[in-house]
Amino acid sequence: MEKKLFVSPSPHVHGGDSTTRLMRDVVIALLPALAVSVWVFGLQTLVISAVAVASCVLFEYLIQRWLLKGASTIGNFSAIVTGLLLAFNLPVNIPVWLVILGSLVAIAVGKMTFGGLGKNPFNPALVGRVFLLISFPVQMTSFTAVRPDAMSGATPLAFVKEALKNGEKMENILAQINYTDLLTGFKAGSLGEVAALALLAGFVYLLVRKVISWHIPVTVLGSMAVLSAVLWGVDSQHYMSPLFHLLTGGALLGAIFMATDYVTSPMTHRGMLIYGCGIGVLTILIRTWGAYPEGMSFAILIMNSVVPLLNKYVKPRRFGVKK
Amino acid sequence: MGVLGITILTLCALGVLAAAILYVVAQKFKVYEDPRIDDVEKMLPGANCGGCGFAGCRAMADALVKQDDISSLFCPVGGGDTMKAVASFLGKAAAEKEPQVAVVRCAGTCAVRPRTNKFDGASSCAVAASLYVGETGCSFGCLGFGDCVSACNFGALSMDGQTGLPVVDQDKCTACGACVKACPKGIIELRKKGPKDRRVFVSCVNKDKGGVARKACGAACIGCGKCAKTCPFGAITVENNLAYIDFNKCRLCRKCVAECPTGAIVEVNFPPRPAAKPAVEGKPAAAPAAKPAAEPKPAAEVKAAPVPEPKPAAPETKPAEKESKE
Amino acid sequence: MLKSFPIGGVHPSENKLSRGAAIETFPVPETVTIPLSQHIGAPAVAAVAKGDKVVVGQVIATAGGFVSSNIHSSVSGTVTAVDAAVNGQGLRQPAVTIKVEGDEWDPAIDRSDKLVRECNLEPKEIIAKIQAAGIVGMGGATFPAHVKLSVPPGKKAEFLIINGVECEPYLTSDHRVMLERGEELLVGVTILMKALGVNKAFIGIENNKPDAIAHLTSLAAAYAGVEVVPLKVQYPQGGEKQLIAAVTGRQVPSAPALPIDVGAVVQNASTAVAVYEAVQKNKPLIERVVTVTGKGLAKPGNFKVRIGTPISALIAAAGGLPEDAGKVINGGPMMGRAMVNLDAPVTKGSSGVLVMSGSEACREAADTCIKCGKCVNVCPMGLEPYLLSKLSRKGMWEQAEKGIITDCIECGSCQFTCPAHLPLLDFIRLGKAKVMGIIRARAAAAAPKK
């Protein structure tokens, strides 16, 4: 035979999925929220996003080539996703040098220390964000007013928490909250967490492209809703409604984009359900009784640490085994 | 003062409590271990390669201490010296073994064994072997994906990009046998390192009939039996169209090397013999090659080592005889 | 909602290029090479010697045990060799080579086209005839048919399931057989039902073959107890366990449980036709329908071929090997075996020959696992392919056994879907073979004690 044929074990065809395609789809799904963010916060949004993405990519490239001496891995879009998600978790008036520092921590500490993509136990973008939040609390929580008539200076969650602490009446608090603004994004907050509708559009896109399954986002939001509804039902004067919890803070951004990070979430659907419920419950607990107004980042990081156990002990439904 | 005092007291109390718990637990769950196991483990090389048949050096040390008769145990990495030291420490009789080394019994380089297809599966010999014949027409020879290389804990194996075959670094090889187990084709064999590291072996495991083997590979053993007829010591047997040299009988005379029509018999670490080279590399007709190969050999060795020419022959054979008796 | 199996599954591009090509009878070649091991189980033992004259349908090798199969000459002529012949994977396997002279058939074989509906044989006689005819599962698994039909004592078959799923992309041989030989298939089904003593048979067909579903449904009205079940298109529906689950909702547990433990016996559609021919026409399994396909082939088609015909001759008939051919596969693209020797013969299990171009065939470079869990969620057996693959690569057999690696049906869904292009199944298959060996060795070691 003149021609050399290829030989390999079966299967001989592939579905066409690739890491690059999946990551690119995540970037595409984030674009509507980015657009809303630009509309709400102005062009500084783009500056921060660009700096975060560029520095994440650069740090990954440098560490991969000069420290780990491996082939460059930036082609798979994962550093871009990390950068974009980090930027989405920052306030708009944060100093640019802090963005770069956050990117360094996210990539160097959160990802490359463990060997790069696929090996990090914690969501790198959240490692970067939490590092900044703890180290630079002032810069990380000073939000600008987006519109004269909107709530200013504090995120809705922080505003409500402060007001409840001060013993204000629930009617007075509720009077100052506009749910339409929460849906469309006219509220103070981090870049990416403001626009509920845009994030939901991204969720639909990810579902249609089969990048993620429904399990994690639905259980995160569902368990948040259930727990907050119980609290609200017990005492509606001191606890906020489920709808408020779902539409504020990083609930949607976290549930759809951060908790579903492949590397740091469980492999099986059953594991995903437990993981999602854990995040939802922890978020409400931290929001209600914790020191911080928002608990999504911490909840996700805590549940990230449980993922190896979930992978080990929560097995998929086997064929031929009776329930 | 009050706060400070309470703090100090509390911490001290906690410390004492913790110490008490630790002590009780340590006593309760104490497991007696022969202290000699630790000592023996330190004497072993610590490679944890599993070449002895145990899960690691610790398990081997445990067996060495606990078994009365340790003659069946042997650490291939540490070799005879380590075993002797351990045996004298424990007051037992150790096994003695000649140092061994892994040899790759395939000479099917890219040049003599043409590739007929391109393997596109997982780069693993085991995967390829379970699927099909391999990238060449020879279903016995080296597949070339380096399972042996990744099995080696000592960095003694490497793939030669030119030939597509693994190469053993005999200084690093400890004869632990990991590569022998890893090779799905069974082409790697542990052989005696030989006096002065000299070895002669058939570098082929092809059991096909001569014509079939030859078609697949220019360096295949075709089972012609010329080597067996030539061997003055009866060290070579031909079975299933394949020659094999018994290293206990072989006295390294190298007559077979010159006789082999395909160059499948390989000699290692012998001093160069200028006239013999073309016989191996050029592979001309066997008859004319055999004569010049036989004649200039003494001359070559005289040049290399004038006086001890007969001497190495004597110690070379003696240990071999000893081994076969033991 | 159409029925399907409960867990996992993928949907590869169907590419059924030859679905419209009617079955063509392939000319008898000049020589045939008939391997002695064309089935799962012990190889057959040659019953002829070099120089013997044989006729079509004559036994040339007898079964080497109960789980084995007779092999018949597919041509008439002279035996030129009973020796090792190179198979599709380049390995040498025992085979009988026959030089064709004329086309003289065993006179006992009824070669007419007349449909014979009545069968007055007892179940045992039917099974004996099937066994004598050397019939094996023609979907590719090549499990001897008589073994499945011999229900062990204490167990009872409740229904027969005919596998007309053909979930492999490209392949259309069963599809054409169902369309063109529907009556024979249905008579075969009734014979199989009689042999098993069941009064219910399902023919499972995926919904991408509406013509076959309609055709068989209309024909089946005349056969009591036979029902055509349309199924949702999902790979690997043709897997025995998956098909049983899709049709009946019953799940066959892990080995050593067999389909019969849930009362099901599965036979392939082509096998049912072969059963008809064996029982009603005395014709042993000497030919089969083979799909020859590929995007680069000029004339993809379905050919009725004598067993032992070189595959290269089939490719030539389908337009010849294209310039850019990069891989030739015996079987379908998901589970077929890549070939190195194109002169290897068609065997009882060859359902198709697929020619892929170099760019189609070449795998993409493997990336690092991003733990997306897609492999877990497509595995039709509910296994964790990423884990089993890793355990196999590292030689951790005990843990692989705990992960039920032996349940893997090697369908390839995990590797098909892996975004990192990891060779998951390559290693799982290796580990499965190793673990099965360990289990067998353990059983052998435990046996004498009892």
Characterize the structure shown.
The complex is a heterotrimer of chains A (323), B (326) and C (450). Chain A has helices at 19-41, 44-67, 78-88, 96-109, 124-135, 137-141, 156-165, 170-175, 179-184, 196-208, 215-234, 242-247, 251-258, 269-289, 296-304, 307-313, and one strand at residues 5-7. Chain A has 323 residues and is mainly α. Chain A has two domains: 19-140, no CATH class; 148-313, no CATH class. Chain B folds into three domains: 35-90, 3-methyladenine DNA Glycosylase II, Chain A, domain 3 (Orthogonal Bundle), CATH 1.10.15; 102-193, Alpha-Beta Plaits (2-Layer Sandwich); 194-300, 2-Layer Sandwich (Alpha-Beta Plaits), CATH 3.30.70. The radius of gyration of chain B is 27 Å and the shape is elongated. Chain B is an alpha+beta fold. Chain C is α/β, with parallel strands linked by helices and 450 residues long. Chain C folds into two domains: 1-25 and 111-362, Rossmann fold (3-Layer(aba) Sandwich); 374-449, no CATH class. Chain C is 29% helix and 19% strand. The interface between A and C is large, with 41 and 68 residues. Strand 1 of chain A pairs parallel with strand 2 (117-119) of chain B, so a sheet runs across the interface.
